[in-house]
Design a protein that fits this description.
- It contains ten helices and 15 strands.
- It has a six-stranded antiparallel sheet with strand order 8-15-9-10-11-14, sandwiched between helices.
- β4 and β5 form a beta hairpin.
- 43% of the residues are buried.
Length: 376
């Protein structure tokens, strides 16, 4: 298999063929903390894998331009994976003559670097306004030329810098992608249109960890916005204690929710995580650290109960109704390998599933921000 990143501009037919899983309706993903301050332990969760019935009668117009992303692993890069994914979606739709996957695949890493270079310093609210940082450059590299990568790095004065393999304090992994190394890159860039964004919902407290604050009609609002521009929506939500960003690329009122595997077990998993945090607190070296961890555990239990109470008050799990979601944490063993490091071997991971399914209850209970990015 080629070591070049294979971008899949998937047609509906390909989705139905590739993602049909008659023996398993679930796929497991690992969500790592967004910052080192939140810890290093990932949370594992289930998502519904589409089968041959998942797209029947659904809003499928966006699917031909959806691209599978590499697994973000522990880079804390979900907002950039999703934002770049939407830019890729528009790039593919606006340039149908591009048949090469490499030409349609854009660099998440470049977008990440813009943040580290301060292009987001003057944004009013970066979780919803990050696309304006990319507007300042108006262009982006292809992933083939400036790939989402793994490498050796270490921290110097709180900043990641390249390191040698045997260097003291050196780590190997995708956080290397936050390091800007494109200044002398001899590669063409893809010119982009100016993008705007329209907010569908923003948490009143601007809190990316909040739950149950979305309006009661959030599902209808997102569906209307998808239809309005025939384009994806970016959503931020509480992913079992970590905030996470993802793309919504369609919906189906007729597809099975499979028992609402994400929301239906949310309270249980939040309590389990709270128990783990209490164990960490009991091993803390200072009283201040212990109190901080115990407060964190209390917040996990509170938010879990909020979701469970609201979920049950709204009738629990509906039998049908799902969003199509393109995520960056559900590596699929049925997908091709993505080679993070062309100078190394053994670090490859399967690409993410192009589409997973999330029950509508996921949006109702857990989404705290939703907006649409579109070209002017």
């Amino acid at each position: 298999m080629s070591k070049l990143f294979i971008l899949l501009a998937l047609s509906l037919t390909t989705l139905n063929t590739t993602l049909a899983k008659p023996n398993s309706r679930f796929i497991i993903g690992a969500k790592y903390p967004n910052t080192e301050a939140e810890g290093t332990r990932p949370v594992y969760s289930k998502a519904i894998a589409p089968d041959h019935n998942s797209f029947k009668g659904g809003y499928n117009d966006l699917l031909p331009f959806v691209t599978a992303s590499p697994d973000q692993e522990n880079a804390g890069s979900c907002l950039f994976m999703s934002s770049t994914g939407i830019v890729e979606w528009w790039h593919a739709k606006m340039n149908p003559q591009l048949t090469s996957s490499e030409d349609r695949d854009l660099s998440e890493r470049y977008f990440m670097n813009l943040s580290k270079e301060g292009l987001d310093n003057d944004l009013n609210y970066w979780p919803t306004d990050m696309i304006y940082a990319l507007n300042k450059r108006g262009k982006i590299y292809r992933n083939e030329d400036y790939r989402y990568t793994k490498g050796w790095y270490k921290k110097v004065n709180g900043k990641r810098v390249p390191a040698l393999e045997n260097e003291d304090g050196a780590y190997y992994g995708v956080p290397f992608s936050w390091i800007s190394l494109y200044k002398n890159l001899d590669a063409p860039m893809v010119k982009l249109p100016k993008f705007e964004r329209e907010i569908i919902f923003k948490d009143p407290a601007e809190n990316r960890w909040n739950v149950t604050t979305a309006p009661k009609d959030i599902v209808s609002k997102i569906k209307r916005m998808i239809k309005k521009r025939n384009a994806p929506v970016l959503a931020i939500y509480n992913h079992v204690g970590f905030w996470h960003a993802t793309m919504i690329v369609g919906f189906n009122d007729h597809a099975s929710t499979e028992g609402c595997p994400f929301v239906g077990t949310y309270d249980e998993r939040m309590n389990k995580r709270a128990d783990e945090i209490v164990e960490e607190a009991n091993l803390a070296q200072t009283q201040a650290q212990k109190k901080k961890l115990l407060r964190k555990a209390k917040n996990f239990r509170r938010r879990g109960k909020q979701v469970e109470d609201s979920y049950q008050a709204n009738g629990g799990c509906s039998s049908k109704g799902v969003f199509y979601v393109r995520d960056s944490i559900y590596s699929d063993p049925d997908m091709p390998l993505y080679d993070y490091d062309l100078t190394n071997s053994g670090e490859e991971t399967n690409l993410n599933a192009p589409v997973i399914l999330r029950e509508y209850e996921w949006a109702e209970q857990l989404i705290n921000h939703a907006y649409q990015i579109y070209p002017l």
